[in-house]
Amino acid sequence: MIDIPHIVAHRGASIEAPENTIAAFRVAGARGAKWIECDVTLSADDKCVLIHDDTLERTTNGTGPIHHSDFDALRNLDAGGWFSDIYKGERIPSLKDTLETLYFMDMGANLEIKPSGCDPVRLCEEVIKELRISKTVPPILISSFDDTAVAHMRKHMPDLPCGWLLETLPKNWKAEYARLGASAIHIDHKALTPVSAAEIVDAGVPLVCYTINDVERAKELFSWGVTSVITDDPAKLLMAFPRRPFAAHR
């Protein structure tokens, strides 16, 4: 399992810059973050691009489903003006641009495979292709809510760690985790309790929580043995936790 830092910047430093943009990744790096989390999906012409939503309205000046626009059309959109005039003209990044940027910044990436309406297997295949042909690949951890994507990535890139993304912890989580061949559990922190956290940690499973912007909540989660927290505000959490905290219950 790759060594995930204790603080991961959610879609970059998304409290300070427009999410899932190169600007947000650079701000995260400037604040001391060593890893970012970002969302990867496909354009209409099967190019890997970074955007969270199924549609374009919230984070760009475009409209409609992402998968109805080809790569050139997506790249012509403004993905920063909605956040601030400072970032007007910021573009939707390609996966290629992202890998190169993070590589030269000496940062790692949690790439969330986000089908959002496209075929998850096709998306996985394009991500795999990009990772294999790129000469500038930073440390990578894959994650997805889509079980098909998790299983496909583990089958075709078995050396690449892959997190199983969850909103709640299923009762049969151990069997499902083993079936998928996942490398970590990524879960909404609100769904976690000291008992469920201990169950996961004691099973030797790395535990990543999203999305935590409160220092006291992060402190509590670390005391339960959580490996990493994903945050919109890496500057604040890194100031509070410059080093990986000790897991008190262990």
TrEMBL record:
Molecular functions per Gene Ontology: glycerophosphodiester phosphodiesterase activity
Keywords: Hydrolase
Residue intervals of the GP-PDE domain: 5-241
InterPro entries assigned to the protein according to its UniProt record, in alphabetical order: GP_PDE_dom, PLC-like_Pdiesterase_TIM-brl
Enzyme Commission number(s) of this protein: 3.1.4.46
Signal sequence, start to end: none
SUPFAM superfamilies per UniProt: PLC-like phosphodiesterases (SSF51695)
PANTHER family in alphabetical order: GLYCEROPHOSPHODIESTER PHOSPHODIESTERASE, CYTOPLASMIC (PTHR46211:SF1), GLYCEROPHOSPHORYL DIESTER PHOSPHODIESTERASE (PTHR46211)
This protein's name: Glycerophosphoryl diester phosphodiesterase
Organism: Thalassospira tepidiphila
